Amino acid sequence: MLRLTIAFLLALSGLAMAGTAANTPAEQLAEQESRALKAISGDRLDFLLRRPEAKIKYSRDWLKAQPKATGGTEWQCLAEALYFESRGESVQGQFAVAEVILNRVDSDRFPGSICGVVKQGTGRKFACQFTFTCDGRAEVINEPAAFKQVGKVARLMIDGAPRGLTDGATYFHTRNVRPSWARKFTRTATIGVHLFYRRPTQLSQN
Fold first, then answer.
1. pLDDT tens digits for range 89-135
2. How far is CA 138 from the centre of its chain?
3. Same domain, 156 and 141
4. What's the domain range around 31?
5. pTM of this structure
6. 172: β partners
7. Which position has the higher pLDDT, 12 or 75?
8. Residue 91: how many other CB atoms lie within 10 Å
């Protein structure tokens, strides 16, 4: 984000002009960044530049004020997972579930993409990682307002929002179940109806 902002300022000042001869590595990098910025839509660029990474507020009012979120397949997978797994949770709880999914993406124990993590085990009833993908019920988004909200959470997390709620957790469950693995793992947080865990030897991922 800092490099993106610097490049944007360079582009505005004329120091990073696409199409001019770039002699030094620094000039070449500035030119590449300038071209990349020009390929981003105005609305998207404004969103990236003004997103307050260090000032995330876990409230519905704050989230409501954020720009409408859109994205590709990975964003869609994360938004759907948040919708089906945590739409009834607080904003903080939704961010926490998103943390788990992204922490899994970063872990060698899980697939290396958001969609891979969300769909791991899909097709084997009650043997999947996320119940909504294998509970035998159709996945229908019938609460547009709730999906709009979790879509913003997904966008912010993919764009680099801090992961400071769950201390590197890669597992969670609701209070009304007691999986056997929970007795062996380290509990890192309790947020709403969800309890969060990581394996005892796993380092925190912030």
1. 999 999 999 999 999 999 999 999 999 999 886 666 556 777 776 76
2. 24
3. yes
4. 2-50
5. 0.70
6. 196
7. 75
8. 21
Same domain, 115 and 80: yes
Which CATH number is 162's domain given? 1.10.10.2520
Distance set, CA 65 to CA 2, 7, 33, 47, 147 (Å): 23, 27, 29, 12, 15
Angle of helix 2-13 relative to helix 25-38, nearest 10 degrees, comes to 90
Query: In the chain, what's the furthest Cα-to-Cα distance?
Result: 64
Q: Which residues contact 134 (CB under 8 A, 6 or more apart)?
A: 121, 122, 123, 124, 125, 126, 127, 128
Number of domains forming the structure of the chain: 2
Contact (Cβ atoms closer than 8 angstroms) between residue 163 and residue 103 = yes
The CB-side HSE value for 46 (13 A sphere, CA atoms) comes to: 7
In a domain, 109, yes or no: yes
